[in-house]
Design a protein that fits this description.
- The protein is elongated, with a radius of gyration of 29 Å.
- Helices cover about 20% and strands about 30% of the residues.
- The two termini are about 30 Å apart.
- It is an alpha+beta fold.
- Strands 9, 10, 13, 17 and 20 form a five-stranded antiparallel beta sheet that branches. A three-stranded antiparallel beta sheet has the order 14-15-16, with no helix packed on it.
Length: about 290
């Protein structure tokens, strides 16, 4: 009977963790470049149950019976991990000169440890501790010192892994960001047109090795390689566009309701076991 209690309890714990991941996804449905997390549920190792037949024989000699298989028993499930989905979100036009979206859908999948994995491209940013982070959030602005920064305040890095600073007192409308990531000042004035910077684009061949660092940023144990000057023709930038999150709000809400129903079902199972134990206690209670 206690096995059933453990199985129901493990189901409740697992669904609670899955619900947390779904809630995080839904809360970031409007966050530019956000990648949803999928929660995988795994069963605990199966147990093979056997019983032993009654002793066989006659007289003073007893011969043990043969083992008879009853079947397999699964002691519940557990939420193994959150797996991010790096599928590209929809690109929405904003016409803001400092809104930039990555388009990397044309990158072919690669074989990683025997399975096909699609590489993903990221913007490189400088975190508060000076380390390099990676994000798909291309909603940027210029700070008071002329640095190109994300909406979280992280400085956008160039391919030389240095922050991009625009020293001239130019406005956002004076900037053009081409598909290769070059930042061109005064594109409509031939006498003043010049390249003032380049956006660093890092490509993760296996993005599942990245770790979430909060604020829609990932970190890597080993620095990612940068793409320079359109070296990877399958990666391009689109100025005036924002990549939306890849969260499907309707599907996420449906999954949350399914998780709640599963949680309630496990609660009912626990209530049945609790009532059975109470009855067993009442029957076996010794009255004084």
């Amino acid at each position: 009977m206690l096995r059933g209690i453990y199985s129901a309890a493990s189901g409740m714990f697992s669904l609670e963790r899955k619900q947390e991941a779904l809630a995080d996804n839904l809360a970031n449905a409007q966050t530019p470049g956000y990648k949803k997390d999928d929660t995988t549920l795994r069963a605990f190792p199966k147990l093979l149950l056997e019983r032993i037949n009654d002793f066989e024989g006659s007289g003073q000699i007893n011969i043990p019976g043969q083992n008879v298989q009853i079947g397999e028993l699964v002691n519940g499930v557990y939420a193994q991990e959150r797996i991010p989905s790096f599928t590209q979100g929809a690109l929405v036009q904003t016409d803001n000169p400092l809104d930039v979206a990555i388009n990397d859908q044309e990158i072919p999948a690669q074989d990683v440890n025997g399975r096909q994995v699609k590489p993903s491209a990221f913007f490189a940013v400088q975190l508060a501790d000076g380390t390099v982070g990676y994000t798909r959030n291309g909603k940027w602005d210029l700070d008071s010192n002329g640095y190109l920064v994300t909406s979280e305040g992280y400085r956008v890095l160039g391919p030389n892994q240095q922050p991009i600073q625009l020293t001239d007192s130019m406005s956002k409308g004076d900037l053009l960001i081409d598909q290769k990531g070059q930042i061109v000042a005064y594109p409509n004035d031939p006498t003043r047109t010049r390249v003032v910077g380049e956006i660093g684009i890092a490509v993760a061949n296996n993005p599942y090795e990245l770790q979430r660092a909060g604020s829609n940023v990932y970190t890597a144990d080993n620095p990612l390689g940068f793409v320079q000057g359109g070296a990877n023709p399958n990666v391009s930038l689109q100025q005036g566009f924002i990549e939306q999150s890849n969260v499907d709000s309707g599907q996420t809400m449906t999954d949350m309701m399914v998780a709640v129903r599963g949680y309630e079902a496990n609660q009912k199972v626990l209530n049945v076991y609790d009532q059975s134990l109470q009855q067993l206690y009442s029957v076996g209670k010794i009255n004084g």
